[in-house]
Design a protein that fits this description.
- The protein is α/β, with parallel strands linked by helices.
- It contains seven helices and nine strands; from the N terminus they run H-H-E-E-E-H-E-E-E-H-H-E-H-E-H-E.
């Protein structure tokens, strides 16, 4: 019995090994089959994809322009023939044209410009509508009496306006007269160049010195004497009442005689050394003294009357 059992035990060992090997071989075959079938189904490996950008033209529907209604036809204006209008030409304007033609004729024939046709800005001056040429030394003699109390500010504005038109090569001086005295704008006793600095300095002194305050009567003789000592080419004399009134009144004949002594006729050429332009301000001069001074010392265009509302025009 024991020997039969040992024989059975010996057979079971090889069988177990055989079964184990068979199972492993079967598993290996199954794995190989699965792997082979997957490889066949996948095919070629995937390629790497990169993206790029380029402008793509966009087509839009064209928008038709709005059709506007036609413009209504307008009637053409009827041309009316007008009769020619006669234009009146002043005699003095014709004379000016003739003078201009004469200047052109002189230039064409001689090749030289007449002296009267040559403008010299460094020798021109304008004040209250009165112009002067060939004037390099200018003195303003202005009434500062009580009658100018309400008007002196306006006159000073015109004075500064005149100074601003001067050329720096010109020289100027300013004198005010009231009662029997002269008020000189510094520097006293001399003229200064018409530079912006000197003009500003003079106007500042007038405004801030409290020396130029209209008061009392007027007598211009002292101021005119001071002006003549400055050896000017032209004097601008402005007054509302040149002969004054009351205790400071000076008779017209006496004033004219005194000015004749100050500005006598030069026997060599029959001319007076200084041109005196006269400005009658606001009120008419019943005696006509300012006009007479201008006729004697200023010439035909040496007088003007400035009425109210005309200043600055």
């Amino acid at each position: 019995m024991e020997s039969n059992q040992l024989k059975k035990h010996d057979i079971s060992g090889p069988v177990a090994w055989t079964l184990s090997i068979g199972v492993h071989i079967g598993v290996a075959l199954i794995a190989f089959f699965i792997t082979w079938s997957v490889i066949r189904d996948e095919g070629e490996p995937p390629q790497v994809v990169t993206s790029t950008w380029h402008e793509q033209p966009v087509l839009e529907e064209a928008i038709l322009p709005m059709i506007l209604p036609p413009k209504p036809e307008t009637e053409k204006p009827v041309e009316v023939e007008q009769e020619p209008v006669e234009v009146a030409v002043k005699k003095d304007s014709l004379e000016s044209v003739q003078d201009g033609l004469a200047v052109l004729h002189t230039i064409a024939t001689t090749g030289e410009v007449p002296e009267k046709a040559i403008r010299k800005p460094e020798a021109e001056v304008k004040f209250m509508g009165l112009d002067a040429v060939a004037a390099k030394r200018i003195v303003y003699v202005v009434d500062a009496s009580g009658s100018m109390l309400l008007h002196l500010t306006t006159v000073l504005g015109e004075l500064e306006r005149s100074l601003r038109t001067l050329h720096p090569k010109q020289e100027f001086g300013i004198l005010f007269f009231q009662q029997k005295k002269a008020i000189a704008v510094p520097p006293k006793g001399e003229l200064v160049s018409a530079t912006a600095k000197n003009i500003n300095k003079a106007m500042r002194w007038i405004d801030t010195s409290d020396k130029v305050i209209p008061a009392g009567g007027s007598n211009p003789i002292v101021a005119l004497k001071s002006a003549m000592r400055l050896h000017p080419d032209v004097i601008y004399l402005l007054s509302e009442n040149i002969t004054g009134a009351g205790r400071y009144e000076v008779p017209a004949d006496e004033l004219l005689e005194e000015i004749n002594k100050l500005n006598p006729v030069d026997k060599r050429n029959g001319l007076r050394k200084v041109q005196i332009n006269c400005i009658q301000y606001l009120s008419q001069d019943a005696t006509g003294t300012m006009r007479k001074i201008a006729e004697i010392h200023g010439g035909d265009d040496g007088y003007t009357f400035i009425e109210r509302g005309r200043v600055g025009k």
